[in-house]
Amino acid sequence: MMASAASTRARVISAVFEDGVLKPGEILPLRNREQIQIAILPKAAWARALGVLLRRVHGRLSDLSPSEIEGEMSLAARAARRSRRRRS
Questions:
Q1: Which strand (E) or helix (H) includes residue 53?
Q2: Which of 29, 42, 54, 62 is least enclosed by beta carbons within 10 angstroms?
Q3: Which positions ≥6 away from 28 have C-beta within 8 Å?
């Protein structure tokens, strides 16, 4: 018997949308008809958002404390989400 989604941790997987069906790139530990939530982020958009985040933080690492780095990453992530919403 497969594990319930409630007993597994959240994770990101790759999938392909083909002929009206979302096909995951790996076997998922889900029961038949188990309901889950899916967030869709095209791979190119995800890569751009990550690049923005890394460029923003990378050049300043030696000048920042760990808590400041975390704050900068949060700001960049929020900016990426706002940008994504504007495109939607």
A1: helix 43-58
A2: 62
A3: 13
